[in-house]
Q: What sequence folds into this?
């Protein structure tokens, strides 16, 4: 399976003998897609692994924001959606597992171990916590096994990988979470907001926090889940949404946020919102 060309893949786990599984899926989007409508998974919890970019989930009135390397658990029978947000540009895996013990064993694990893992995951539901990029290798290997499922050995591998995935997820969920942004990130945020009106260069951001450009890009992505330029553009587009609700012309909004041309602004705006500035403004006025 070529993960470089597969935009979206979904497998029904019960087709592969996973009695307590519903589905596992993966997407890698280069631009935003329409948002998820309100839905629920009957009797199943869902674990979402945001690897790159950003994703939002809305449960009731509560909105949860996931960035790269974040994990979120949706409880069973819980209505959720992406709210007013689209399915975002980036990469995400998800897996749905039945919590009812009468449905059988999970990956041939003893009942006690199965119930322990699922109870631990349910305990962390409706919380965003940090993952590990090691999980991506487990998930990709699992998807490859499902794509090429052809023997008893494949079945053993699928069971083993799901068990490993759940165990690693539970371990990560119990690690202390860094809630407060670092001093350096706060400093960068202030700098970006102060300079949204112009082009912001990665090297000046790196200089601000005393890092080489190469190390800064690595450090920044590890902290925010996205490259510096994407982070800056997301903030610019959020400001553009506010500006488009005023009487400013679209060209004026574009130049006022440091975009060299209105076309580049429109392309960037659509990449992160799924719509053009003109369409966005029209929808706000309806």
A:
């Amino acid at each position: 399976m070529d993960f470089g060309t597969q935009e979206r893949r979904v497998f029904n786990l019960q087709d592969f003998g996973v009695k307590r599984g519903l589905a596992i899926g993966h997407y890698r989007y280069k631009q935003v897609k329409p948002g998820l409508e309100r839905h629920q998974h009957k009797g199943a919890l869902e674990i979402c692994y945001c690897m790159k970019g950003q994703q939002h989930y809305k449960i009731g009135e509560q909105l949860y924001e996931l960035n790269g390397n974040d994990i979120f658990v949706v409880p069973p029978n819980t209505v959720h959606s992406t709210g007013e947000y689209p399915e975002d540009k980036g990469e995400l895996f998800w897996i749905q597992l039945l919590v009812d013990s009468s449905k059988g064993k999970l990956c041939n694990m003893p009942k006690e171990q199965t119930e322990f893992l699922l109870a631990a995951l349910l305990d962390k539901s409706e919380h965003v916590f940090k993952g590990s990029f090691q999980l991506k290798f487990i998930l990709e290997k699992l998807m490859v096994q499902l794509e090429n499922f052809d023997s008893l050995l494949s079945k053993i591998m699928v069971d083993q990988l799901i068990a490993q995935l759940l165990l690693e997820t539970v371990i990560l969920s119990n690690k202390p979470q860094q809630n407060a942004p670092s001093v350096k990130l706060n400093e960068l945020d202030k700098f970006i907001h102060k300079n949204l009106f112009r082009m912001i260069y990665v090297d000046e951001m790196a200089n601000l926090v005393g890092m080489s450009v190469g190390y800064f890009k690595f450090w920044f992505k590890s902290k925010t889940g996205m490259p510096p330029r994407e982070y800056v553009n997301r903030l610019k587009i959020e400001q553009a949404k506010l500006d488009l609700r005023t009487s400013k012309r679209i060209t004026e909004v574009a130049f006022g946020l440091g975009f060299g041309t209105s076309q580049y602004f429109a392309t960037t705006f659509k990449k992160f919102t799924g719509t053009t500035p003109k369409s966005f403004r029209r929808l706000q006025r309806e």
